[in-house]
C-alpha cells in the first residue's frame, strides 16, 4: 500500500508549474502524432480538474491537480500544482526544481485516428484522462516550462513568458466569448 502523507512539515513552496503536456504535429517515440483539436471534446467534457496529475503514469501515485488545461497553436498547455504535503509530490518537486526531471506525458484513450503511409498514427480525437510527470516523455517536446516562476530553458518551443502570454490571451478570448 502506498503511503501518501508525509509528516506535518509545511510545504516550502506552492508547487505550481506550467508546460506542454503534448505538442502538436510531432511524431513521438510511440509513432503517434497529435493534431490540433484532438483534446477539444475531452477538455469540454472533463475540464481541467477532471484530468489527473500522476507520477510516471502510475494511477496509485497522484501527485497534484491540474488547475488549467487548454489547446493553443503549439499544443496542450497545462498549469498544475504539486501537492507537496504528499511524499511523492515533494520528491517530484525537488527533481523538477533541480532540473533533474522536466518531462510531461499524457494518458488517453484514442477516439479517432488515421494511419499514415509511413505507419505513424494521426490522433484526431482522444479522451484525455491524465497528465504525468515523467523522466522520458514519448513526445520529446512535452516539457515543464516553469516552476513557481522559475523559467526553464526550452528547445524550439515557447518560453515560459511566451506561454504565459498565450494563457492570458486564452483567458481574454474566453471572456470575450462569454460576453456575447
From TrEMBL:
Q: Which residues cross the membrane?
A: none
Q: Domain named Prohead serine protease: which ranges?
A: 13-145
Q: Which GO terms describe its biological process?
A: proteolysis
Asked whether the keyword Protease is assigned, the reply is yes
Q: Does the keyword Protease apply?
A: yes
Gene Ontology terms for molecular function: peptidase activity
Q: Which Pfam families match?
A: Peptidase_S78
Q: Which UniProt keywords apply?
A: Hydrolase, Protease, Viral release from host cell
What protein am I looking at? HK97 family phage prohead protease
According to its UniProt entry, this protein's organism is Emcibacter nanhaiensis
Amino acid at each position: 500500500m502506498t503511503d501518501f502523507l508525509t509528516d506535518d512539515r509545511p510545504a516550502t513552496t506552492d508547487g505550481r508549474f506550467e508546460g506542454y503536456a503534448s505538442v502538436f504535429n510531432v511524431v513521438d517515440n510511440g509513432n503517434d502524432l497529435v493534431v490540433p483539436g484532438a483534446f477539444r471534446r475531452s477538455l469540454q467534457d472533463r475540464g481541467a480538474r477532471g484530468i489527473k496529475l500522476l507520477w510516471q503514469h502510475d494511477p496509485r501515485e497522484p501527485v497534484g491537480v491540474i488547475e488549467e488545461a487548454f489547446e493553443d497553436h503549439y499544443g496542450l498547455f497545462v498549469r498544475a500544482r504539486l501537492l507537496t504535503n504528499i511524499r511523492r509530490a515533494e520528491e517530484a518537486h525537488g527533481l523538477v526544481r533541480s532540473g533533474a526531471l522536466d518531462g510531461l506525458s499524457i494518458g488517453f484513450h484514442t477516439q479517432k485516428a488515421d494511419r499514415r503511409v509511413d505507419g505513424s498514427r494521426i490522433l484526431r480525437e482522444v479522451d484525455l484522462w491524465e497528465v504525468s510527470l515523467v523522466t522520458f516523455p514519448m513526445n520529446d517536446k512535452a516539457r515543464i516550462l516553469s516552476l513557481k516562476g522559475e523559467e526553464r530553458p526550452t528547445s524550439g518551443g515557447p518560453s515560459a513568458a511566451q506561454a504565459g502570454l498565450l494563457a492570458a490571451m486564452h483567458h481574454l478570448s474566453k471572456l470575450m466569448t462569454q460576453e456575447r
